[in-house]
Amino acid sequence: MVEKDNTNLSIGKQCKLLSISRSSFYYQPKGETALNLMLMRQIDEQFLETPFFGVRQMTWHLRNDGHLVNEKRIRRLMRLMGLMPIYQKPNTSRPAKGHKIYPYLLKRMSVTRPNQVWASDITYLPMRRGFLYLVVIIDWYTRKVLSWRISNTLEANFCVDALNEAMAKYGPPEIMNTDQGSQFTSFAWTDRLCRSGVRISMDGKGRFLDNIFVERLWRSLKYECVYLHAWETGSDARAGIAKWVAFYNHKRPHSAHGGKPPAVVYWLDKENMQPDQQEQRVA
C-alpha cells in the first residue's frame, strides 16, 4: 500500500492519503516474548467473555488453563493492553492529572436519531509478533462506524485524527460519550469537541455498560475478523480492519434495526429527518 521508493509522494503524504498514521507504518513488533503475546491473546479473548475479571481472577483463570503465571505479570500485560475491568481502571483509562472529568449524560436519555450521540473507545489488536491499538467512533443510534484509526501508542493524537475525520464527513454530534481515559480527557480531544458545540459525556468510573454499544462492536470485530488473522504489519492490520468495517457498515445485518445494516439505517433516518431536526443542537 505504501511505496517506500515512490519519488513523487513522500511516505508521510502516502500515509495521510491512506489514513494511516506514520507511527503505524513504521510499526515494529513490541519487545514481548512469544509466551507473553500468547498470554495477551488469551487474556483478550477471555476479557470479551468476562469483562469483570480483574488481575486476580484473570491470573486464576490462566493458571486453571495450565499456565504458570503470577499476578505481577498479568497486571503488567493487562495494563499494556489497556483493559478495564468493570470495577477498576488501569492506567490507560485514568484521566491525566489536572484533566477535567465530565458527567455521564446518557442515563435515561432516549436516543432516537443519527448524530444525536456518538461514542468512542480504544481496544487492543494482537499481531503475529506484537500488537497495535484501535480507536473507533460510532453513531450510538444506528451503530454505524463513522471513523477509526490504528496506532502503536496510546497517545491522544490518533483519537483526535479519527474525531476530525468523523466530524468532517458527518458534521458534529450533539453529545460525545467516552470513558475517562487520558486520551479522552486530554485538551486536544475536549477542546475540539467544545469548539464544535458538542456536549461531552463520560462513563462513570469502572462502568463497563455505560459504553455498551462500543463493547459489543469490539466483540463482533474480534471474533469475526481479528482472531481469524495473524497480521504481520500495521498496513496488513489496517487493510483487514477496513474490509471488515465496510462489511459491518454496509452488509452485516444488525438486530437493533430489524436486520438492516448500520449504514443503511443511518442514511435512511438522515433523509427522513425534518430540516429543524437536522439543525437541532442541545443547548
CATH topology of the largest domain: Nucleotidyltransferase, domain 5
Total number of distinct structural domains: 2
Q: With helices defined by DSSP (H or I, 4 residues minimum), what is the helix count?
A: 12
Considering DSSP H and I runs of 4 or more, what fraction of the residues is helical?
40-55%
CATH architecture descriptor name of the largest domain: 2-Layer Sandwich
Mean pLDDT score, rounded? Answer: 84
CATH-wise, what's the superfamily of the largest domain? Answer: Ribonuclease H-like superfamily/Ribonuclease H
Q: From the alpha carbons, calculate the radius of gyration and give it in angstroms.
A: 19 Å
Global structural class:
alpha/beta
- In total, the number of strands is 5
Strand content: 5-15%
Q: Which descriptor suits the 3D outline?
A: globular
- Widest sheet: strand ordering: 3-2-1-4-5
Keywords: Plasmid
Organism: Salipiger profundus
Protein name: Putative transposase
GO molecular function, one term: nucleic acid binding
Explained architecture:
Helix content is 42%, strand content 12%. The protein has 283 residues and is α/β, with parallel strands linked by helices. It folds into two domains: 31-90; 117-278, Ribonuclease H-like superfamily/Ribonuclease H (Nucleotidyltransferase, domain 5), CATH 3.30.420. A five-stranded mixed sheet has the order 3-2-1-4-5, sandwiched between helices. Strand 1 and strand 2 form a beta hairpin. The longest helix is centred in the C-terminal third of the chain and has 17 residues, at 234-250. Residues 87-92 and 276-283 have low confidence and may be disordered.
